[in-house]
């Protein structure tokens, strides 16, 4: 059996960080994920998916992620049920994240929420663009490609 989900989207709110009675950190936020196809009116729709991130990874998400930031979330789908104050049973679907990657640039933000920074001593600070050394970066010139040149 397999229960794996990979999502890429934008945060709809700042992460909310809480702590359990035993002191375990838990962050929650909602991720807006665009649908592949437009609806009958020709508009693109999005799904708003609840994300829960535990422990140090949750603290890192609360520290670095903000509303509007793009993130990739990998985890598992969890359906839980509880009874609300009116006595009605409520079912909640949420993704329990195992890995979160920060996909857009931010000031001094690591590219992954694994808790380890990818820079070594003597290298550029994290706030500098990691794309400065990219030989394929857009230099402002358009590229003309003929369909016959493509291998597919």
Automatic annotation (TrEMBL):
Position of sequence motif Important for interaction with partner proteins: 147-152
Give me the stretches of Basic and acidic residues compositional bias. 130-144
Cited InterPro entries = NA-bd_OB-fold, Primosome_PriB/ssb, ssDNA-bd
Q: Which GO terms describe its cellular component?
A: nucleoid
| Keywords, alphabetical | DNA damage, DNA recombination, DNA repair, DNA replication, DNA-binding
Keyword Transmembrane attributed: no
* Gene Ontology biological process terms, A to Z: DNA recombination; DNA repair; DNA replication
Give one Pfam hit by family name: SSB
A GO molecular-function descriptor: single-stranded DNA binding
Q: What does UniProt give as the signal peptide span?
A: none
Q: Which PROSITE patterns match?
A: SSB
From the UniProt entry, list the residue stretches annotated as the region Disordered: 107-152
Q: Where is the composition biased (Polar residues)?
A: 111-120
Its annotated function is as follows: Plays an important role in DNA replication, recombination and repair. Binds to ssDNA and to an array of partner proteins to recruit them to their sites of action during DNA metabolism.
Its quaternary organisation is:
Homotetramer.
Protein name per its UniProtKB record:
Single-stranded DNA-binding protein
Q: Which organism is it from?
A: Ferroacidibacillus organovorans
Q: What is the lineage of its organism?
A: Bacteria, Bacillati, Bacillota, Bacilli, Bacillales
């Amino acid at each position: 059996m397999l229960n794996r989900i990979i999502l890429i989207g934008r945060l709809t709110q700042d992460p909310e960080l809480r702590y359990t009675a035993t002191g375990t950190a838990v962050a929650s936020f909602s991720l807006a994920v665009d649908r592949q196809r437009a609806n009958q009116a020709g508009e693109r729709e999005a799904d708003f998916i609840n994300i829960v991130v535990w422990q140090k990874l949750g603290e890192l998400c609360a520290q670095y992620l903000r509303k509007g930031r793009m993130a990739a979330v990998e985890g598992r789908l969890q359906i839980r049920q509880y009874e609300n104050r009116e006595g009605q049973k409520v079912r909640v679907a949420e993704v329990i994240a195992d890995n979160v990657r920060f996909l857009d640039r931010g000031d001094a933000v690591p590219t992954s929420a694994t808790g380890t920074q990818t820079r070594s001593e003597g290298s550029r600070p994290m706030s500098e663009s990691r794309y400065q050394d990219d030989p394929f970066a857009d230099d402002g010139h358009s590229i003309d490609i003929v369909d016959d040149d493509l291998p597919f």
